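Feature request disguised as a bug report, sorry. It would help if multi-protein outputs had a clear separator. Right now it looks like this:
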Amino acid sequence: MAATETRVLRVAGEQHGVVRRDQVLAEGLTRRQLQRRLDQERLVKTHPGVYRCEGAPQTWLQRLQATALWARRDYAFSHRTAAALWGLARFEEGCVELVLARNARPPPGVIVHRVRALPHHDVREARDFRVTSLKRTLLDLAEVAPSEDVRAALDQALARRRLALDDFAQALSRRTRRPGLAFLRELVGRYQGGEGPTESELEARVLELLEAAGVRAECQRRVEVAGRLRRLDFRIPGTPVIIEADGYAFHAGLQSFEKDRERNNALIARGFRVLHWTWAAIHERPEELLRELHRTLGVLAPALTSPGRTRPGAPSR
């Protein structure tokens, strides 16, 4: 009996502390012995036919594993769960959501999206779980998540080169009558037209902060500075005010640091006012950033409105 118990625990140990009924029986426990362990709470039922071993830490990954054991086949974790497994910003661990290509009553706490079929090309593996592909995940997210979160997820996937914009555009063209599809097509169309994407979640947060404050900004515009085309993160239209989103991931290293300083000096010499917004500042003191922006605009207002004066930052002829 001890050897049987050890085998069951070994199987559970490889599955985040959970085990399925047929696995328990396959290791030598009888149905009566299994029931006794359930009565003694040495095994605790989590889903139909799935049990957690006594003392096993209860985690999100364990819930996913239990759900995977329950689903068995024709499934993939999807939507917000897939986004969290892919590591997309704004989607945290906690939700358990999957697509299932058959009828089955979901266990409590599990969101099931029933589909007619689950094509092989739509299924990948992330963190040892079956998940929808990144492309399919973004399509699914557009149905259930706020638009700003979907935009941030797409920005991140493109910035990290985990997704090709043209491939994603083709995938959208093959879809019809799907919630969120129009938003994704509009977003991709803007990106293909040169208006994006923002390069990071940081830049997405900058844009949201500006929009929430009623400040209109142009994204990813290019200007000629010191004989070179420079891409501006954000520019306030009609003013020489630029907001640069400074994230370590995109500006790390001595060479990048030197290039950033060179670029910053060239912009200032050209007549621009450059404000640098960091991830920490946006999270910890967004009101202070906005006050600084409004003070800068207020100082520039007389120069911008005085007749006969050249607007600072205006392109030289």
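(second protein starts here, but nothing in the output says so)
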Amino acid sequence: MTLPRFAIAIIGLALIASCQLTDPTETTPRADACGASDLTYMVGKRAAEIDVSDTAETVRVIGPDTAVTMDHRPDRLNVHVDDDGVITKLTCG
């Protein structure tokens, strides 16, 4: 049994109509979701003197020999410090 051309056309249109283009801004997290770019003034200060608890939900301090997990969390603020505890850079992830 073969389907008439009309039925095939209706099925094709239904399949095409079910496809939606997504807006990449809805699914892509902000590059600076943790607010690191707003905190660049902290670079060069001692991490112990800074309170970033109100800036990001999750904060981790990463020293030169600190082991870190490889999971990427855009909302997490990474505070990179040197051996003296001075902030060298701030990143999200």
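Even a blank line would do. Unrelated, but nice: Residues 36 and 73 are 13 Å apart (CA to CA).
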